[in-house]
Amino acid sequence: MFTEAVNAAVIRDELQLAEQGVCAGTRPAFTDHFLARRTAVEHRVKSALARELRAWQGNLATQARQYEAWMARRLLAELTPLSREAAPLAADFLGRAEERFRRVVEAFRDRIGRNIREATGVTVSPIAWQVKRPELAVVPVALSPTFMTHWDLLWWLLPMGLVGGLFRRHVLGRVQWEVEKNLIRLAGDWARTVNEAVADLRAQASAWVEAELATLDRVLRPRQAEATAFRAALRRLEESERLPPTRYMEDRPKTANH
After folding, report:
1. Which of 223, 208, 220 is nearest to 8 (CA)?
2. Which terminus of the chain is less hemmed in, N or C, by CB atoms within 10 Å?
3. 255, part of any domain
């Protein structure tokens, strides 16, 4: 009944192209969003860590564990509100995706309406696509180990009186890397979360299109058959009217003479 313009596979392709257009911009946008906060976060974390280091006691292994625990807490405190602040940007991408998908669906509705009128002479108004936006959650923070070596085994070879200054310079120097790494990771996690939500919206739209096509085909197929039969009968009537008179008389049934 329906032409290629309203074929489900064609509509799926259009929706996928719309999805790709939106998702291509998520990673750069979130990376720019978070890295714009990098300098301020680095300054706060480094200043707080310098104050903390002066009060720490114990051997190298103990202080390394203190640093890891402290940095994890501090980054969590710094980046959690930043992650929440990214929610409007995520909502903006979902809004763009919904708008693009809706344009595809509206165009599908227009084309299918024309198809139905041409095939059956019936005018229908397919129901609108009801959107259900997925919920987005805040992403957690990750922290790498302070050192690549098991200092619990070697701490006794390196007394803090000898390596304390080196340790403090080392961990203070890592702040920039830790902050940038976690901001970039956060951007990637947000981009992935939004892309998954956009894919969910696209799947909703695709499922609606397929369900609408199936419903309309089931409802309109009997009407199409009736319209086809009517048009065939009309053609036969028109053809009979065009027959020559002699031919028409010959085709009339003969009656008995009285």
Report:
1. 208
2. C
3. no
| Short-list 100, 107, 86, 82, CA closest to 198 | 100
Structural domain harbouring 61: 4-250
The answer to whether the Cα torsion of 77, 80, 84, 90 is positive or negative is: positive
Strands of the chain (E only): list them.
Answer: none
Helix H or strand E segment including 69:
helix 60-85
- Among 238, 136, 149, which Cα is nearest to 190's? 136
CB 78 within 8 A of CB 156: no
Tell me whether residue 194 is in a domain. Answer: yes
Tens-digit pLDDT profile for residues 33-83:
999 999 999 999 999 999 999 899 888 878 888 888 899 899 989 999 999
CA atoms within 13 A on the CB side of 30: 32
pTM of the full structure: 0.74
Give the total number of structural domains in the chain.
Answer: 1
Positive or negative torsion for Cα 113, 114, 118, 122: positive
In a domain, residue 196? The reply is: yes
